[in-house]
Amino acid sequence: MSGEKPAEPLAQRVIKSGFWVFALKFVQEILYFARLIILARLLAPRDFGVIGIAMLTLAILDTFSQTGIQDALIQKKEDIRGYLDAAWTGLVLRGLALFALMFFLAPAAASFFKTPEASALIRVFGLSQLVMAFANIGVVEFEKHLKFHKQFVYHIAGNITNFVVVVALALLLRSVWAFVLADLAGRIIQVGVSYAIHPYRPRFRWDLPKIKELFRFGRWVMGSSVLIFLVTQGDDIFVGKVLGAAMLGFYQMAFKLSNTPTTEISHVIGQVMFPTYAKLQDNPLRLKEAYLKVFQVITFLSFALTALILVLGPDFTRVFLGEKWLPMVASLQILALAGLVRSVIGTTGPLFYGVGRPEIEARWEFVRLVVLAACLIPLTLKWQLAGASLAVLLSLFASLIGFAGNALKIMSCSRTEYARYFLPPILSAAALFATAWGVLNLFGHGLAGMSLAGLAGMIVYVGLTLVLERKLEYRILSFVKDRVWPLVIRQKNKMMKTAARCQETKISY
Question: What are phi and psi of 449, to 5 degrees?
């Protein structure tokens, strides 16, 4: 059972899948930022630090127990139905082990960060992971076969539940318990939905040869996950241990606001492109064309968002979060640049996985870890949050060389051709920054000034890009207009017709 429509071109399926993944991420980000602003007003920076410590503990144990089984299922060329029971069994056993570790190690983890109140939170997060381990493994076919409209339903149910519960409990309790209880509620709903939308029913079956086969690919995913954790969370651990829970709260808030917009773009597109690259791995020319187009779209969006964060970040913090969050502004701006570099690096991971070369990512994440370890301690001790942020930026720049170089080698792409995609967004982003800064200083630093500055900056960004399209054959806006937008409109109309039919059925009933 392939679940695909052979008559439909791959490019069309990719764009339609991208529509659904972007729709999912758009809703998720709206819910996420609404939740963040509400909770930032209700809770103190130290509360965010405490929940950050509990989530760090979860991230440590989760990362070091990764199996890469689901990525291996997506990458396999042949039908995966014969592997699903073995994969599900492995994931359930991992969930049980993870829950046991978090339950028994919670007091030690809380003691390490000198936040005893985090112990109970860690245990509830462990319970959430145990619940999630029983999710229907069949949903992996949605991603493998680019059925992201069903993936949308699967994820959005948990996100909406999480948002409603966390806001309600935060208003009621004014406590960090709102986070963990909302997470548990969202996981329970998501597991239930996984069985409602996919007919496969997994059974417990210990099949060691098949688990070993999946793990041969997955071990590199696990290795990359461990290294990615160390380079993305190592700074959090150090800040939390050395500077304390309150400073960790500032640091994590700065990271979320500065990196989420840009890195989520890479994540969204990468989620679609991983299975796409896997389908194109035996066609080098089409693989190169697909990657460069994705790279172009990501850099076009990421440069604009980074410029907006740099110029509007201080005023956004003051207006939406409050004066108590201003100590994080310098860190916010440095991490915005780090997020831009991370979004570029993020284009390479799906490519390496899609062609069966996950070890490349692992090697260069190790290089990044070495640079981070060398810079983090001296820079943090000298400049505190800004120093930790600078260490992250330097480590990303160091690893970018290797990630980009290996991607070019796989695609047989020249450096000149690759660099051609950087110049237009750099020039347009500089113009955006200058325009927004000028408008902001002219009309004031309140909400109205921020809105005008952002709007004016984006108009200049798009306008200059149109000029550069003709001069440099950049063609990003032409691609969106001619290839992406018609499919988006078609997909939107299909959704509206489906909704209308459902409403007619309901009325008839």
Answer: -65, -40
Average pLDDT over residues 11-28: 67
Q: CB–CB of 369/396 below 8 Å? A: no
Spell out the SS3 assignment of 228-273.
HHHHHHHHHHHHHHHCCHHHHHHHHHHHHHHHHHHHHHHHHHHHHH
CA distance 376 to 453: 35
Q: Using alpha carbons, select from 42, 118, 79 the residue that is nearest to residue 322.
A: 42
Task: Please tell me the predicted confidence (pLDDT) of residue 275.
Answer: 75
Which residue is it, tokens 């200083």? 441
- Whether 454 is covered by a domain: the verdict is no
pLDDT confidence bin for 503, thresholds 50/70/90: very low
Closest CA to 134 of 90, 79, 180, 104: 90
Residues 6+ apart with CB under 8 A from 104: none
> DSSP code of 174?
-
Contact 115, 55 (CB under 8 A): no
Count the helix, strand and coil residues of the chain and give each as a percent rounded to the nearest 5: 85, 0, 15
Q: What does the pLDDT read at residue 493?
A: 57
Coil, strand, or helix at residue 206?
A: coil
Give the chain's mean pLDDT: 81
pLDDT: which is higher, 121 or 277 = 121
Domain annotation covers residue 249: yes
How many separate domains does the chain show?
A: 1
pLDDT of residue 502: 41
- What range does the domain containing 36 cover? 10-421
Residue 486 has pLDDT above 60, yes or no: no
Is the CB of residue 341 less than 8 Å from the CB of residue 371? no
Q: pTM higher than 0.90, yes or no? A: no
Radius of gyration for the alpha carbons in the chain, expressed in angstroms and rounded? 23
Give the angle 157-146-504 at the CA atoms, nearest 5°.
55
Give the integer Cα–Cα distance in Å for 303 and 225: 26
C-alpha dihedral over 135, 136, 137, 142, to 10 degrees?
A: -110
Per-residue confidence band for 2, with pLDDT thresholds at 50, 70 and 90: very low
Among the listed residues 226, 217, 262, the one whose alpha carbon sits nearest the alpha carbon of residue 359: 217
Show the CA angle centred on residue 301, arms to residues 52 and 447, nearest 5°: 70
Residue 490 falls inside a structural domain: no
Percent of the chain with pLDDT over 70: 82
Q: Is residue 266 part of a domain?
A: yes
For residues 217 and 71, is the Cβ–Cβ distance under 8 A? Answer: yes
User: How far apart are alpha carbons 468 and 328 in whole angstroms?
Assistant: 36
